[in-house]
Design brief:
The structure holds two protein chains of two kinds.
Chain A: H1 4-23, H2 28-53, H3 58-80, H4 86-110, E1 118-119, E2 122-123, H5 125-153, H6 166-187, H7 190-208, H8 216-238, H9 241-264, H10 269-274, H11 283-286, H12 299-307, E3 311-316, H13 318-323, H14 326-338, E4 342-347, H15 357-364, E5 372-374, H16 375-378, E6 387-391, H17 400-403, E7 422-427, E8 447-451, H18 454-464
Parallel strand pairs in A: 3-4, 3-6, 4-5, 6-7, 7-8
Antiparallel strand pairs in A: 1-2
Helix pairs in contact in A: 1-2, 1-9, 4-5, 4-8, 5-6, 5-7, 5-8, 6-7, 8-9, 12-18, 14-18
Chain B: H1 5-25, H2 32-43, H3 47-55, H4 65-92
Helix pairs in contact in B: 2-4, 3-4
The chains are: A alpha/beta, B mainly alpha.
Chain lengths: 465, 103
């Protein structure tokens, strides 16, 4: 057994270690050390908690067994998962945090003495509010993340599911939720507590189904944020500093990422979570699509263009992830470099299905991170570049975002691909991207369309080089 | 007059939000995916609540409903802790700098 004060000091230390873990991510060099701090912080928190409970009987054995079971499942997943599946994995992990928060809240509600919160039927009001908030946010995170997981995994269609009066239903559920928490505090009747959890599960589903596949970067960041707030809520209930600090860190981290993603699309947060994008506004662009001439080429043309260029900028997008083309891409770039071509990569903030998705894939393919640039860093270079190789990206290069105020993506910052001398566009067809908007770039004189699977085309280009 | 301990915890909470705000803005965009997986791993520190919930109560009577929910939460959080930190480790190991002296 250790004293409550000493315990609190240890929790504070692990909270600080978690801050250092995030701090380490400011650069790739310090990031590995940061992760180590995180692991130490976690081990410390678990260690002192076990000592503080001091129940080294049968229960302790079960604890070890369960840690081992959960730990081996986690380890297995961590080593088996392909890097392209990272968005699904993160969504899946969020759902587990959410559910764990719900379970801990239930446990605290059923057996409040353990946490010094009062006795069943007479739990401290503040604790009741905290645990029901923790449980509600946890439950929303759980079902919301499951829907996000299913959409990312492709089990569920990525297109938004909307119905009449959707937002009012959600609003109503939200109001019911708040009144239930109020009644729970007043009456302490456990039926209300269970109802809160059930309604939150439902609300989680309803909140995420109207959001389309291309908005998944925002959704994942948002759920990341929710899982933090849920942890903080539980942290207040259990009066645990480590949980409060961590919850606040994760909550604000997710919120900032959501903000960055929304800004990358020039959309407000509410616009995204209210959803339904991609289902409207097609009419303005449908006309005159058929008549426009398109220049298409093959791998030899592309190889010729790039070999004779002095600088090439690669613009990867979600299509690269789907086709698993990152390794082939790296090989192509290696071949170009042998020919003396200067190659860099340009990454749009919302490329892919989660923040930093493209960076991870390129890192997996051994692309040095100092050849990879963010939008602001590289956008001026397109004007001086000979060839832009767009692989699996579409909406983030669409010049219509600058020219057509009618367009749903108007105002979104784009990569100025159109300014480069020639553009190679690897795409399977002329179909519009997720936003459902035709891309002007396809019909430009300096654009050469390469109709093929991203990986196959890149491999063919390597052969032609 | 004494200050409610809740106020202290609330102060920690608010200050941590600010720390989180500044720390996360300094994270380089190329590491946003590892940021998500590591925040996910550390938010599983909720396991401390699960451990207390699971092991509490009379010795030999650890199969109360409350305890069972604690045990379930331990499994979920453990998956997340190991999975989250290890997958972050795996990702971070891939970020390499350009070799200085290559032909």
């Amino acid at each position: 057994m250790i004293s409550a004060n000493l315990l609190a000091v240890f929790y504070l230390i692990s909270g600080v270690l978690f801050i250092l873990a995030l701090r380490g991510l400011s650069s790739p060099e310090t990031s590995r050390q940061g992760n180590l701090f995180g692991i130490i912080g976690m081990a410390l928190a678990i260690g002192v908690t076990i000592i503080s409970v001091g129940n080294f009987s049968t229960g302790f054995l079960y604890l070890l067994v369960l840690l081992l079971i959960g730990g081996s499942i986690g380890t297995y997943i961590a080593f088996k998962i392909p890097m392209t599946a990272m968005p699904e994995l993160v969504a899946g992990f969020h759902s587990l945090v959410g559910l764990a928060a719900v379970f801990v809240a239930i446990s605290a509600f059923l057996n409040p003495e353990v946490f010094n919160l009062g006795i069943p039927g007479n739990i401290k009001i503040a604790s009741l509010i905290e645990m029901s908030l923790g449980a509600a946010i946890g439950a929303i995170t759980f079902t919301g993340s499951i829907i996000a997981f299913l959409k990312l995994r492709g089990i569920m269609s990525g297109s938004p599911i909307t119905f009449f009066g959707q937002h009012y239903v959600n609003l109503l559920l939200g109001i019911i939720l708040i009144s239930l928490i109020f009644y729970l505090c007043k009456t302490q009747v456990d039926t209300w507590f269970w109802t809160i959890i059930i309604i939150s599960f439902l609300l989680g589903i309803l909140l995420i189904i109207p959001i389309g596949g291309a908005d998944m970067p925002v959704v994942i960041s948002m759920l990341n944020s929710y899982s933090g707030w849920a942890a903080a809520g539980i942290g207040f209930t259990l009066e645990n500093t480590a949980l409060i600090i961590t919850g606040a860190l994760v909550g604000s981290s997710g919120a900032i990422l959501s903000y960055i993603m929304c800004k990358g699309m020039n959309r407000s947060f509410f616009n995204v979570i209210l959803g339904g994008w991609g289902a409207t506004d097609q009419s303005s662009t449908d006309k005159s699509k058929e008549q426009k001439p398109v220049k298409s080429g093959n791998s030899d043309d592309a190889a010729f263009l790039m070999k004779n260029a002095s600088s090439v900028i690669i613009v990867p997008g979600y299509g690269m992830a789907v086709a698993q083309a990152q390794h082939a891409l790296r090989e192509m770039v290696d071949a170009l470099k042998k020919n003396g071509v200067k190659v860099s990569y340009a990454i749009h903030p919302v490329a892919g299905r989660m923040p930093g998705h493209m960076n991870v894939l390129l890192a997996e393919a051994n692309v040095p991170y100092d050849e990879v640039f963010e939008l602001e860093e590289i956008n001026n270079d397109f004007a001086n570049c000979d060839v832009a190789y767009v692989i699996g990206a579409n909406d983030v290069t669409n010049p219509v975002a600058k020219t057509d105020p009618q367009s749903p993506i108007y105002g979104m910052p784009i990569l100025d691909v159109e300014k480069s001398k020639s553009v190679l566009f690897v795409k399977r067809s002329l179909s519009p991207g997720y936003a459902g908007i035709d891309n002007d770039l396809f019909y430009r004189d300096n654009t050469l369309m390469l109709f093929a699977d991203a990986k196959k085309m890149t491999e063919d280009i390597i052969k032609s080089l | 007059m004494e200050i409610d301990p809740f106020i202290f915890r609330f102060s920690i909470f608010i200050l941590s939000i600010f720390i989180g705000y500044y720390v996360v803005w300094s994270v380089t965009p190329s590491l946003h995916t590892p940021l998500m997986s590591v925040t996910n791993a550390i938010s599983s520190v909720i396991i401390v609540g699960a451990i207390i919930a699971a092991l509490a109560g009379e010795v030999g009577n650890i199969f109360d409903t409350a305890n069972i929910f604690g045990f379930l939460a331990i499994i979920l959080a453990a998956v997340n802790i190991f999975g989250g930190f290890l997958v972050t480790q795996r990702m971070l190991a891939m970020y390499k700098k350009k070799k200085k002296d290559k032909k």
